[in-house]
Amino acid sequence: MKSTHIVIIGGGYGGLRALESLAKHAHISITLIDKNPYHNLQTEVYDFIANKVEFSHIMIDLPSLCKSFASVQFICEEVVSIDPSRHHVLTPTHTITYDQLILSTGSRTYFPDFIKGLREHAHGVKSIPVALDFKQQFERALLERIEAQSSICNTEPFNIVIGGAGLSGVEIAAEMAAYANRFYQNGNFGCRGIDVYLIDAYESILYGMDPFLIQSAHERLVKLGVHVWHNNRISEVREKEILLDSGKILSYEFMIFTGGIAASTLTEHLGFPTNPKGHLEVNEHLNIPGYEDIYAIGDIAHTLNEEGKMLPPTAQLAERGAEHVARNIISSLNGKTKKPFHFKNQGVMIALGGEYGAGILPGGIKVKGYLAYLVKKAISLYYTAPLRRRSAIGKRR
After folding, report:
1. Looking at 206, 227, 257, which one is the last position of a domain?
2. Residue 349: which of 365, 337, 338, 336 has the closest Cα?
3. Of 375, 353, 381, whose CA–CA distance to 52 is shortest?
4. Could you give the CA distance from residue 65 to residue 220 in angstroms, rounded to a whole number?
5. Predicted local distance difference test score (pLDDT) of residue 190
6. Count of domains in the chain?
7. pLDDT value of residue 180
C-alpha cells in the first residue's frame, strides 16, 4: 500500500485521539497543526482557576508528544486557508499537501450579540490564556479587598456571576464557591465577602439532563452557598452590573459567561457550509458534504443524533468521532465502505467543587459525593497518563 499523508488541524481531544489511532499504521504519515504548542486540558481548567492544580497540570506539550511518534510532524502555526481542489493547507509559512484532512479546532465561548455589553464585560474561560488572566485578576481583587479591611468589615458586595447553568456553568459555580469557602476558612478572615450567583434561563439547572444529576448538582450548589436564580435571562451587561429580563439588577466584581459555544474562527474562512454558530455541517460519515477526503470532528462539527438533533459538544464526543474517522480512513484506503457514525454516550461525570461530584456511569450506575470525585479523577488520569508518557519519550529524542 502506498504512503498516505494525513493532516490534522487542531491538537485538542479529537485531534490527538485521531493522531493516536492513525499513527500506529506504518503506511501513514501525519502532520499535526495547532496555533498553540500545547494541548489544552479544558476539563481541568476549572480546577486550575480554583487553585486545585498547578499550571502545568492543564497542558501537554505537543512538540514533545509528536516527536514520540516515528511519522508525525508538528507545525505550530495558525491555518490561514484550505484549498480542497489542490489538497493544500496553508499557514503563514507552509503549504502542506494532504491525502486526507481532519478538522478538529474546537470551539470558543459564544457571546450572543443580542445581549448588549456581554462581549465587552464578561469572561470566557475556555482557553488557557483567558483562564490565567481571569485567575490572576480574581486573586488580585481578593488581595485588594483584604488589604482594604479595617476593624469594621467592608460590606460592599463581591459577587461572582456565572451566566448559563449548563454543565460548564454549574461546574465553575461549584468550584468558585468551594474555593471562596476554603479561602476564607484557611485564612481565618473575619469578613466573609464572596458570593457566587448562577443565572439560569430555565426552570432547572442542567436543563434536559438526567434528574439525578440535576438534583445532586442543585443540592451541592445550595450547600456551597451558591445563589441560583432560575427563569432569569440576561438582557444587558454593564460595567459592574447586569440587567435581567425580570427587571432585577445585580452588581458583580467578575462575570463569567458559559451560555453557549461557537465553533473556532477557522470555519469562517473555509467556505464550507455551517450552522448559525459556525459549526461545520457533516454527513453521516463525518465528512464535509462533497469532500470524501475531509472530515470534521468534535466541537467544530454539527454532529447529529438519530433524531436529527445536534449532539452536545463534549470531549467524549470528540474522541469517539476521532476514533470513527480513523476507522473510516483506514477502510477507504483499503477499498472498503465507510460506516456511518453513531454516538453512544458512555456516561457523564460532573465536578461539583472540592472533592465532590456526581455522575452516571455505563450501565446507568449513579454515583455522587467523594466516590464520584474519585471516579472523575480516575477517568482524567486514564486519559492524560498515556499522553504524558509519550510526551516524556518525545522530550528525550
Report:
1. 257
2. 365
3. 353
4. 38
5. 56
6. 2
7. 85
